[in-house]
Amino acid sequence: MAGLWLYLRRRKDGIDGDAVAVPYGSNGKAIFIVFAMVSLVEAGLFWLIDLGPFADLLLLVLGVYSVLLIFGVYAGTVVRPHVISSREVRIRYSSFYDVRIPRENIVSLRHLKESHDPAKAKAFRDETWLSHDNYYETNLVVELREPVTVTRPLGKTESVRVVKFTADDPKAAVEVYERLGVDRV
């Protein structure tokens, strides 16, 4: 809900100083709208079935809440973009995770488009983390000097040396990373 609040106020989270936002959620907008519409239709259908006033009201409240939750997750992808600054690279997905990687620990950030078979791909494999926020496709790869600890949405942690994730404009992200790195020297 915090993401929805920031979205309505047209604010972004974590963009300060020389930090540059790197959006990643534009391809997912349609699916969030479909989920929200299905939730609304479902709530309406439950309203048509007469289960009594208490059950009808409860199902209506749950339907509205589920639509708000869906829009909140989408809003979180907009207001919490990946961030590249002279200090760090932050890889995020809505409010589910926020991984901070200090620039001193980054060997390279490069554009490399890959598709990962969901049946075969695991989020963590061979010290590589695949951020599956875009239909099992990634287009940026960060290689690290030292492993970083990534916390999964449910709390389990993993140590990774390679992070693969997606951005709407990966070439621009690499250019920003290189430009901000040159400015530091």
Outline the structure in words.
The chain crosses the membrane at residues 30-49, 55-77. Keywords: Membrane, Transmembrane, Transmembrane helix. The protein is an alpha+beta fold and 185 residues long. It is built from four helices and nine strands. It has helices at residues 2-8, 29-48, 53-79, 170-184, and strands spanning 20-22, 82-84, 88-93, 97-102, 106-115, 124-125, 128-130, 137-151, 157-165. The chain has a five-stranded mixed beta sheet with strand order 5-8-9-7-6, covered by helices on one side. Strands 1-2-3-4 form a four-stranded antiparallel beta sheet, with helices on one face. The longest helix is centred in the middle third of the chain and has 27 residues, at 53-79. It is elongated, with a radius of gyration of 19 Å. The termini are far apart. The model has no long low-confidence stretch (mean pLDDT 84).
Q: Helices and strands, in N-to-C order?
A: HEHHEEEEEEEEH
- Radius of gyration, in Å, reads 19 Å
* Percent range of helical residues: 25-40%
* SS elements, strand count: 9
User: Span between N and C termini?
Assistant: 40 Å
The main sheet comes to: 5 strands, mixed
| Strand content bin | 25-35%
- Structural class of the secondary structure composition? alpha+beta
Unreliably modeled segments: none
| The number of domains | 2
Strand arrangement in the largest pleated sheet: 5-8-9-7-6
What's the shape? elongated
Mean pLDDT: 84
Question: What's the helix count?
Answer: 4
Transmembrane segments: 30-49, 55-77
Keywords: Membrane, Transmembrane, Transmembrane helix
